[in-house]
Amino acid sequence: MKFGIFPYGVGIFTASLILSVMIIPYAASISREVISLAPSDTKEAAYSLGATRQKVILAYARSGIVAGILLALGRALGETMAVTMVIGNSNLLPDSLFGPGNTMASVIANEFTEAIARLYVSSLIEVGLLLFLVTMIINIIGQYIIKKISFGA
């Protein structure tokens, strides 16, 4: 256990790494599609005025790229099973980035079948409601950001 890192590879850092690798293709494919939708008339007109390719395409696709990244972030927030398998499922506050932890989605997935008492089930449903509210807040913030940086605004 050198440097306070457990050798079995579970923890918050591992879960973060797995999620980041999982959402890269999702964000990249959406960004690629948005870039390919740039109208050729606009590109040719901007080229004739001396604009570079990067300036033209990024100016047109900037809001779509940000939207793709925010969609990928939303998907990462709701990811349950991949995180549950590698985060360590510890109900204690972690003392480091490499320590085991828990997410709201993994708590629901791990404990919902074992919940017998009404208070236990109600608590897990409330955790689900909080997860929904966090996701909704991120979506609202994302819509605000997309409106601010959209083309022609």
Write the layout of secondary structure elements.
Elements: H1 12-36, H2 40-48, H3 53-78, H4 81-86, H5 104-111, H6 118-149
Structural class: mainly alpha
Strand content: under 5%
Could you report the average pLDDT, rounded to the nearest whole number? 83
- Would you tell me which CATH topology applies? MetI-like fold
Total domain units: 1
Largest sheet: none
Shape: elongated
Tell me the number of helical segments per DSSP (H or I, 4 or more residues long).
Answer: 6
- The CATH architecture term is Orthogonal Bundle
What string gives the helices and strands in order? HHHHHH
Q: CATH class, anyone?
A: Mainly Alpha
The CATH superfamily label reads MetI-like
Distance between the termini: 54 Å
CA-based gyration radius: 21 Å
**Unreliably modeled segments:** none
Please tally the β strands and state the result: 0
**Percent range of helical residues:** 55-70%
